Structures are given as C-alpha cells and as structure tokens.
Automatic annotation (TrEMBL):
This is RNA methyltransferase. Keywords: Methyltransferase, RNA-binding, Transferase. Signal peptide: none annotated. InterPro entries: RlmKL-like_Mtase, RlmKL-like_Mtase_CS, RlmL_1st, SAM-dependent_MTases_sf, THUMP_dom. It comes from Aliterella atlantica CENA595. Residues 44-155 form the THUMP domain. GO terms for molecular function: RNA binding; rRNA (guanine-N2-)-methyltransferase activity; rRNA (guanine-N7-)-methyltransferase activity. The keyword Transferase applies.
Length: 375
C-alpha cells in the first residue's frame, strides 16, 4: 500500500532531491517550494530516511483542514484520534512552519497544537505525554499556508543532514546535504579523482567518500523518528539496514583528497573520517593552497572558500581567490573546477571564464557554484 510523503529540502535543491527520490523508487514525485511530494510504501519511507543524501526530513501527512485562526486550529487538532499515533508514555514535540494573518507566530501555533493533543489525552486517559524538544519519541509538524493546515508526523527525528559523523567542525561548515548536492551539480562520479584543497573539517571529501563507497548516510545515525511509530515494522527495517550494510564497497575507485593549511582542522577532518569508517579510504593532508599539485590527469576540483560574509576580510580574500585561479590554470589542466562563492566581486578575482554559473543557497545566503573547464 502506498502513502503520501513530503521531503523537506534546502531552497533551490528541490530538483536534485526529486531526482534522488526517483532513484530510490519514489512514485508521483512532485517538487514544491523547499520540498518534494512523493508516494511509496512503508519500505520506501525507511529506505529514503536511510539513503537520502540531499533531504532534511520526511514528513508523513495525517490530516489537512481549513484553518484561518487559533480556535479552529485547536478544534481541528482535537478531531484527530491521537491515540492512533502516540500514547501518554510517548514523549512529544510539536514543530510549526508557515503562517497566515491570524497564525503568524510559529511558537504560538505549536503551543496551540500541543495543548489540543495533551488535552485530548487527559480527557481519555487521565494522563498526557511529556514534552521533550531535544529527543522526542514522536514529533508532530504543522504547516500553515494561507488558510490551510497540514498536520504530519516527522519520520526522521533529527534532521537527516546530521549524519552523526561530524562531531568536530571548523567555522562556517557546509551542511552535509548541501555538500552532497554540490557533488550532484558537478556531475561527479566515483571513477574520477576528487580534490578539495580548502576542505576545513572535511565535509565535501567525506560526502564524496560515502557516495563513492555506496555507504548509506543513515547507517551512521542512532535513531529515526519512525522507530516510535505505532505501525513500525522492525523486521522490515532490519532487512533494509542489512541490505545497505551488504552493499558497501571496500574502497573508492579513485583518489578522494582533502587538504587545509590548518593542522588542527585537518585533525578534525581525520576524526570525522574515522567516525564514518572511511579514514583509510580517503586522504587528508595539511598543506598550503600554493603547495597543491594535481594527483592525476583529470578529475574534479571543488572549493568552498570564505565569502567575506562570515569569515575573513574581503580585501585579504582577494589574494586567495586570485591564487585559486592561478593554481587552476597552472596545475590542474584537464580537470573541471567548481568554486562555491557568495561574493561576485571576489569571484572576479579568480580570473577565469566560467563555463557555467549554477545558483545555489548556502543556508539563507544566495551563492553561485562556478564551473571552470581547465584546458
């Protein structure tokens, strides 16, 4: 039996997430703003949570209704039989997104929904679920758009971008989901060497390594929201996990290499790789950008230099961007380079003509992924 689901994604990544969902077997895939609607059975729900690299969470809609104000919201939430989804022993969290004229504070909306749920529990059972915003058994999401409210269960729990490997990170790190999406935008495949000479705590090389070795990113997580669902099928889940464990490759086909000038940051990257279980399959080295040489005749070079928004001074960064251009021209002939930047003026300092400019958001910051064919 197929159910309707909604995958939440970062702005601008909807088409990439839609392709990924289709590749995992999703049906009726339809991109929307910061999300993708899709359909599938319970096995697909588990599989998407385990394997998806570019989405944040998978919501399972359980109700939809006209909702112009707080009183109607409370009344309609009370009409749902919440005992189907949680009992008073379960801990609960409510998240809220969107809004309208009368419901324009997400915290108030979430509080109204929580009150409606626990009031129903008290009336039925004489006891209620405790709220646990950090690690709840069941998370209920309400989304208000104009006068429509969609109520969903969150099957993921914590956001899927939190793979579980990145306990150590440098300043202004890329989200894992964005790093995975950048690899897709670059059309990188595991037969090509991959180099990131400004790797920070290693997110781009680590996501490349997980992809190259066919490791499901969800295998690194402790828990998913659906494991507390009333219809959770532990046997089916174990089959899907076992299949994922058995599909891992022992090593990537080509070199995956990250470097950074800061030895402490490289130590962080290495410890993150160890948590991934791929510390011996990818390479991290401490090196200045000026020392980097191409390790092969062709491959993909990807850099996420500071933009001057959060890190570094723009004037100082101009020299870094010029050095990126020089190294691309002089040492990486035959390669394809990609530079993610949120600063157009700094991008000009690279001094190369971009073959393609791909708009992308890094959080709320509008950026561009610049593609350079290096001849």
């Amino acid at each position: 039996m197929n159910f309707s689901y909604f995958a939440t994604v970062a702005r601008g990544l909807e088409p990439i997430a839609a392709q990924e969902l289709e590749s995992l077997g999703a049906k009726e895939v339809r991109p929307d703003f910061t999300g993708v609607h899709f359909a599938g059975d319970r096995a697909l729900l588990y599989k998407v949570n385990l394997w998806a690299r570019t989405i944040f969470r998978v919501l399972v809609p359980i109700g939809e209704f006209h909702c112009p104000n707080a009183e109607i919201l409370y009344r309609e939430i009370q009409k749902i039989d919440w005992h189907e989804y949680l009992n008073p022993e379960h801990t609960l969290a409510v998240t809220s997104t969107g809004g309208n004229k009368k419901l324009n504070h997400t915290h108030f909306t979430a509080l109204q929904v929580k009150n409606a749920i626990v009031d129903q529990q008290r009336a039925k059972f004489g006891q209620r679920s405790s709220v646990d915003v950090q690690n709840p058994d069941i998370t209920v999401n309400v989304h208000i758009h104009q006068d429509k409210c969609t109520v969903s269960l969150d099957s993921s729990g914590t956001s899927l971008h939190r793979r579980g490997y990145r306990q150590a990170m440098g300043a202004a790190p890329l989200k894992e989901t964005l790093a995975a999406a950048l690899l897709d935008m670059a059309q990188w495949n595991a037969s090509l060497p991959f180099v990131d000479p400004l790797c920070g705590s290693g997110t781009l090389p680590l996501e490349a390594g997980l992809k190259a070795m066919n490791i499901a990113p969800g295998l690194l997580r402790q828990k998913f929201g659906f494991e507390s669902f009333a219809d959770f099928d532990p046997q089916l889940w174990q089959q899907i996990v076992t299949a994922a464990q058995n599909s891992k490759l022992s090593a990537p086909q080509a070199l995956i290499w990250g470097s950074d000038r800061d030895p402490d940051i490289i130590e962080q990257a290495q410890s993150n790789a160890e948590r991934c279980g791929i510390a011996h399959q990818i390479k991290f080295t401490q090196a200045e950008l000026a020392q980097i040489e191409a390790p092969a005749d062709c491959g993909v070079l990807m850099l996420n230099p500071p933009y001057g928004e959060r890190l570094g001074d723009v004037k100082e960064l101009a020299a870094l961007y010029k050095a990126i251009g020089d190294i691309c021209k002089q040492r990486f002939k035959g390669w394809t380079a990609f530079v993610l930047t949120g600063n157009k003026e700094l991008a000009k300092k690279i001094g190369l003509k971009a073959a393609r400019r791909i708009p992308v958001y890094n959080g709320s910051l509008a950026c561009t992924l610049l593609k350079y064919e290096l001849y």
